[in-house]
């Protein structure tokens, strides 16, 4: 007979064995995934010593020497302390509780946020002031898809040698054999080497075109190109009259499958050490807490070394709460229009015309072509799979499409090719695509094509179904003037959810239909079977806006090499041009306005932010002292390393707790009264004594008071404090967004403007 004690022991053993079996089974069923273990600021120890410390930390969690070395992918240790490793979820969770670890997060895939633009900003070469000697000492690091070194935009004729401070390298590889005095360095990071998704081998070469486009926007050198679009179009545009001398350092972090967190963090670590002055990164993803976001992490460490990071705001607009890259130490850039738009006119057999949008370089060889619709060209039997009305692949018959223009209702296969590609594969003559929502972004088509507004599409469909012999012709794209600037429809909007009282985006720059260099290794449309190549192309996205802002930051830096990243950012924001077309979202879509580089070199006053101020802000935001201490690797007092404690420092004051150039507050939907205070400090960067007076603009029902109303400065570098008090009642007729502004005027040409934006959730704004 078994005693109760033996029975309990048996049950306990069974449970332990069963639990271990289940855990082992779970591990087998859930393969290890790449994680990043972020540990704050790198110490002065060698990279080799840091890597060994990372191994020892892994060993404490995994418990097996060889397995710990096997699963570690990469060690960061130049400026950023941390490592990447393949972990099970329970191992990642255990590591997150270890001393010295700030955060542990999955390695995710992020995506790219995908002329005359400098002339539009008033940046004509013959008219703007330059500091050529200092320009030659400015290095801009670009994290992107690589670069085509053979593009004429990167011709280094007349450009001197790389700056003496440059510490980087030129890594060569497939289709990338050299750097020069314009592109002084190039590297790539493809850390997780489990398969090369593009099949082209690892190198800094640009097979996408995006990196070449953004890089040439920053530092293209062609003085004037009368560019014939796709080499056979009839219209021409002038491009990039600037002869900038900024040096470029291209770090390829984006591959065919996307841009991984671990690659981007490695690129930041490298760029900081190699001597860059500005970093431009047109990449983004979901909004995450700052120290689970590789861009926020990398930019924080860059800021500590005096480097300003420019980020694209994202392309998920026009909805609210879509903006990405939210850290206050980065500059987040929205996309605005130029004063040019592209029209592709469609004419029907009955004489009616519709003005669509595209980049169509095909001239019609006939006056009219037979016209059909996807519905009429269907090859599906009853009950077949697919939607022929939207011209999905496999739903149309070649005998019904060949030689005809095909009208397609709005739609696109997820991850597949567009309607233009489908119709061309069936030997169609052209394609007209109906848009569900209006767009201002022109895209290239692989055959004659135009995207028409919904109402025009409905009329075309009615025409097709009302006659036995419908006809149409698609004309070549032409350019027309438009009122500008306005924010592009795709540009992501605030407010943000991570730090709700910091206004994002910060600023806007041209990002709609931007002409710049393109890679010879990429096709015009991106389709693998499109054999057309071009040296220049037109692209849209906040990806295109970001390098404009990066170049503007480099321009300001060339005049003020000793300015902090926050001072440069402030100069760009407070001198920005208010948007001519505001839109419903107001400053939530464009921040302070469109960059104005010529004014930014002499802003008069700047809102500076030191590293300690960011730390006090993080304390106010709820980050704990241990985490913040790791970010700065401890404060050293002789040989003693002291612990950072939030309670020992004065936390950021007021509604936002940071000396930010804009002022923003999100209020509850139940709040009927507004009562906010913003504390600010400005530094005089003018040349002599000056007197500033505050000018306030506020809507009815909102009182904005500045104390003091006037400030006098005797010398450069002098600081003055003031506060802005906002009071009012949220009237029923008010929308969920209320704008105001404060502007400091010295009557000598300096206008230092800060937008104020209040946002109340609810009222269809959630």
Automatic annotation (TrEMBL):
Residues 136-593 form the Peptidase S8/S53 domain. It holds the Pfam family Inhibitor_I9. Keywords: Glycoprotein, Hydrolase, Protease, Serine protease, Signal. It is found in: Secreted. Residues 658-757 form the Subtilisin-like protease fibronectin type-III domain. It comes from the Eukaryota. Residues 1-24 form the signal peptide. The keyword Protease applies. PROSITE patterns: SUBTILASE (PS51892), SUBTILASE_ASP (PS00136), SUBTILASE_SER (PS00138). The active site is at residues 144, 210, 543. Its main location: secreted. Residues 35-113 form the Inhibitor I9 domain. Belongs to the peptidase S8 family. This is Subtilisin-like protease SBT4.15. It comes from Camelina sativa (False flax).
């Amino acid at each position: 007979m078994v005693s109760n004690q033996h029975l309990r022991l048996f049950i306990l053993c069974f449970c332990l064995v069963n639990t271990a079996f289940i855990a082992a089974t779970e591990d087998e069923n859930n393969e290890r995934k790449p994680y990043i273990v972020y540990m704050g600021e790198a110490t002065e120890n060698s990279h080799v010593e840091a890597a060994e410390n990372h191994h020892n930390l892994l060993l404490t969690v995994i418990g097996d020497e060889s397995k710990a070395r096997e699963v570690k992918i990469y060690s960061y240790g130049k400026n950023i302390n941390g490592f990447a490793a393949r972990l099970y979820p329970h191992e990642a969770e255990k590591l997150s509780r270890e001393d010295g670890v700030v955060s542990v997060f999955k390695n995710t895939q992020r995506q790219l946020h995908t002329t005359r633009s400098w002339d539009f900003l008033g940046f004509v070469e013959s008219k703007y002031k330059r500091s050529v000697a200092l320009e030659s000492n400015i290095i801009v690091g670009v994290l992107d898809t690589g670069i085509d070194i053979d593009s004429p935009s990167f011709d280094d004729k007349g450009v001197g040698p790389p700056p003496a401070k440059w510490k980087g390298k030129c890594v060569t590889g497939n289709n990338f054999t050299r750097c020069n005095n314009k592109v002084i360095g190039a590297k790539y990071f493809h850390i997780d080497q489990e398969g090369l998704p593009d099949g082209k081998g690892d190198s800094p070469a640009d097979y996408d075109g995006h990196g070449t486009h953004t890089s040439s926007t920053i530092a293209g050198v062609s003085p004037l190109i009368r560019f014939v679009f796709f080499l056979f179009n009839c219209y021409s545009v002038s491009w990039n009259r600037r002869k900038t001398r900024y040096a470029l350092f291209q770090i390829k972090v984006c591959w065919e499958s996307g841009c991984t967190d671990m690659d981007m963090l490695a690129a930041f670590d490298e760029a900081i050490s190699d001597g860059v002055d500005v970093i431009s990164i047109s990449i983004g993803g979901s909004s995450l807490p700052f120290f689970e976001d590789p861009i926020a992490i990398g930019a924080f460490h860059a800021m500590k070394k005096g480097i300003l990071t420019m980020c694209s705001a994202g392309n998920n607009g026009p909805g609210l709460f879509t903006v990405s890259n939210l850290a206050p130490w980065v500059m987040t850039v929205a996309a605005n229009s130029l004063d040019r738009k592209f029209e592709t006119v469609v004419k029907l057999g009955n004489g009616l015309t519709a003005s669509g949008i595209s980049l169509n370089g095909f001239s019609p060889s006939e006056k009219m072509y037979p016209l059909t619709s996807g519905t009429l060209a269907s090859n599906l039997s009853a009950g077949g799979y697919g939607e022929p009305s939207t011209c999905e692949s496999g739903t149309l018959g070649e005998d019904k499409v060949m030689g005809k223009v095909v009208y397609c209702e709005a739609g696109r296969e997820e991850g597949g090719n567009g309607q233009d590609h489908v119709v061309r594969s069936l030997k169609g003559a052209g394609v007209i695509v109906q848009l569900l929502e209006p767009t201002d972004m022109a895209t290239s088509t692989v055959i004659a094509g135009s995207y028409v507004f919904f109402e025009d599409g409905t009329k075309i469909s009615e025409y097709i179904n009302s006659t036995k012999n419908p006809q149409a012709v698609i004309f070549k794209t032409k350019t027309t003037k438009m009122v500008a600037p306005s924010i592009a429809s795709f540009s992501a909007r605030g407010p943000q959810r991570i730090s709700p009282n910091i206004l994002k985006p910060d600023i806007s720059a041209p990002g709609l239909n931007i002409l710049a260099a393109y890679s010879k290794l990429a096709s015009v449309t991106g389709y693998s079977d499109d054999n057309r190549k071009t040296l220049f192309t037109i692209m849209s996205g906040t990806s295109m806006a970001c390098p404009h802002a990066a170049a503007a930051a480099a321009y300001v830096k060339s005049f003020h090499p000793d300015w902090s990243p926050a001072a440069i950012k402030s100069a760009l924001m407070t001198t920005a041009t208010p948007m001519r077309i505001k839109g419903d979202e107001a400053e939530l879509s464009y921040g302070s306005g469109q960059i104005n580089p010529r004014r930014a070199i002499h802003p008069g006053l700047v809102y500076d932010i030191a590293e300690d101020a960011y730390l006090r802000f993080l304390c106010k935001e709820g980050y704990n002292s241990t985490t913040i201490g790791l970010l700065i690797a401890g404060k050293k007092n002789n040989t003693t390393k002291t612990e950072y404690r939030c309670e020992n420092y004065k936390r950021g004051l007021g509604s936002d707790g940071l000396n930010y150039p804009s002022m923003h507050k999100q209020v509850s939907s139940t709040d009927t009264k507004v009562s906010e205070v913003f504390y600010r400090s400005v530094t005089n960067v003018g040349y002599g004594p000056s007197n500033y007076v505050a000018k306030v603009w506020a809507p009815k029902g909102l009182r904005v008071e500045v104390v003091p109303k006037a400030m006098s400065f005797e010398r450069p570098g002098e600081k003055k404090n003031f506060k802005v008090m906002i009071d009012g009642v949220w009237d029923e007729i008010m929308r969920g967004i209320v704008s105001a502004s404060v502007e400091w005027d010295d009557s000598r040409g300096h206008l230092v403007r800060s937008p104020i934006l209040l946002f109340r959730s609810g009222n269809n704004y959630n």
